[in-house]
Amino acid sequence: xxxxxxxxxxxxxxxxxxxxxxxxxxxxxxxxxxxxxxxxxxxxxxxxxxxxxxxxxxxxxxxxxxxxxxxxxxxxxxxxxxxxxxxxxxxxxxxxxxxxxxxxxxxxxxxxxxxxxxxxxxxxxxxxxxxxxxxxxxxxxxxxxxxxxxxxxxxxxxxxxxxxxxxxxxxxxxxxxxxxxxxxxxxxxxxxxxxxxxxxxxxxxxxxxxxxxxxxxxxxxxxxxxxxxxxxxxxxxxxxxxxxxxxxxxxxxxxxxxxxxxxxxxxxxxxxxxxxxxxxxxxxxxxxxxxxxxx
Length: 295
Hints:
42% of the residues lie in helices and 24% in strands. By secondary structure, it is an alpha/beta fold.
């Protein structure tokens, strides 16, 4: 049986000859035959064939090479690479935006370091997300609603995010936010970027003061995985047509459920779990993984 893959190498800088030579050495070592290579604006693509493959060792070799050269590398089955994508689902905090919103809220409330420590543990998968979120929101009891707008005004999109979403919209690809963060911020970002769907947690306020409680079921790792399934069905797509992008431990089930799950500038645990990762480039690097760089 012939196995067909595409090696996608992405960098906004010129890829050195040494990098190209080392890629070819790795492919030769793992008995992958290169039958086509092509260079586009930011991507270098090798179309390869093999009769058998040690994927774990091969991917480990690519990860080491990526770290040496600061070039993102993905080893994608040809069928998946060529599948027309119809939906991209994003995490919000540290994915669409550079900040963790709950940490920004905590700073405003005078408990920044206390909450940030819990956030780090949760995003690294060291404690359950539901527990961590409940603890952090309870610490924010009394938070004044008027600070929400101040925080929103200071949030910054991650590099390449607005441009990436504009390209997706031109391609007719649907977009969604699946966030363990909060609805006010997610819905404001949805409006700014014209994202199609949004799922996030709802905070309870009384007299414009946060009660320290969350309304309704928590959007957690299991919820995000189900969102992938439900939105794919709603849009009439297979899971192979869905892309998921995130950075935290609670994104792992979503990344593994989608056909193309990309860990972006992610925590170590997430990088190890995800099949594909962007560590060096902007959000637009995902276009190369999706076979849409030329748009």
